[in-house]
Amino acid sequence: MTILVTGSNGQLGSELRQLSVKYPSFNFLFTTKEDLPIEDVKAVQTFFDKRHVDFCINCAAYTAVDKAESEKEKAFLINSVAAGQLASICNAHASKLIHISTDYVYDGRSHQAMKEDDPVAPLNVYGWSKLEGENLILRQCPSGLIIRTSWVYSVYGNNFVKTMLRLFKEKQTVNVVNDQYGCPTYAADLASVIMKFVEHTGNEDQYRGIVNYCNSGITTWFDFALSIKEFVKSPCNIIPVSTWQYPTSAKRPQHSVLDTSRIRKMLGTDIPFWKDSLQKCLGALTVNN
Q1: Cα–Cα dist 149/54, whole Å
Q2: What are the percentages of helix, strand and coil residues in the chain, rounded to 5?
Q3: Lowest-confidence pick of 27-31, 116-120, 204-208
């Protein structure tokens, strides 16, 4: 079975590459935005014409949330247009598409954990571009699976955990927002869940549509930072601030908590608590450094 992973040099793609050694019976094809930009529809079409792809895990995305406010056209090209074109090609080649989306499709005004069929109303360009991508995928590839996730971090790439570790070394005091609630997601855990879907190939018909995935538990960015500080025993002082004290180009949801009951029921699996996964990631970062 051949599995194509697009955007493989990002956080999730890198974790899938690391995990692939545990699946020697599968043929993995890892492509980056340099060798297979998904917005190049001719290149993607040629790629699929030349080889049979059983699964396409689309990790390629425009993820610069604040920059998207001034690069709307680029964000929609990659997250919407290209995602829809990829879905159409996957559908034509009978390739199962697994696409990664975001909690930013919700407005964050509900104080309940958000289910897959709850109303969506993005607050920023990035969120709208991802939502439009979802809509195109559902139309172009009815068998596709979309996984919404949140607050992703990893030993790879740029993310909140690595930023905090750097700031702890550079500064004596760091301000972190304390009124935005969400669920951190360790990309290695998400990669494992994706591979569980791949392994359940006999249930493809029921594994379609939209599912939410994040680690279990709820926290704020401030408490997330505090946990990082505690694990690495940093002397840095972390100061809680409100969203209005830390303005950003793109507006963020205040309560970005995902309900993961559907994916747990589908796979019959437990989801790790976010602090346990954070400890694993920090341990891996310590070994790599």
Answers
A1: 23
A2: 45, 20, 35
A3: 204-208
Contact by Cβ (8 Å): 101, 146: yes
Contact 259, 115 (CB under 8 A): yes
Q: Which residues are catalytic?
A: 126
pLDDT digits (tens, 9 = 90+) for 71-115: 999 999 999 999 999 999 999 999 999 999 999 999 988 888 999
Contact (Cβ atoms closer than 8 angstroms) between residue 258 and residue 214: yes
Please state whether beta strands 181-182 and 219-220 pair in parallel, antiparallel, or not at all (unpaired): antiparallel
Q: Which residues of 47-66 are buried (b: 16+ CB within 10 A; e: fewer)?
A: bbeeeebbbbbbbbbbbbbe
Can you give the pTM of this predicted structure? 0.94
Quick one: tokens of 158?
């740029």
The token duo for 91 is 């559908």
Q: How many CA atoms lie within 13 A of 265 on its CB side?
A: 7
| Domains recognised in the chain with CATH numbers | 2-158+185-214+257-273 (3.40.50.720)
Burial class (CB in 10 A: 0-12, 13-18, 19+), 211: buried
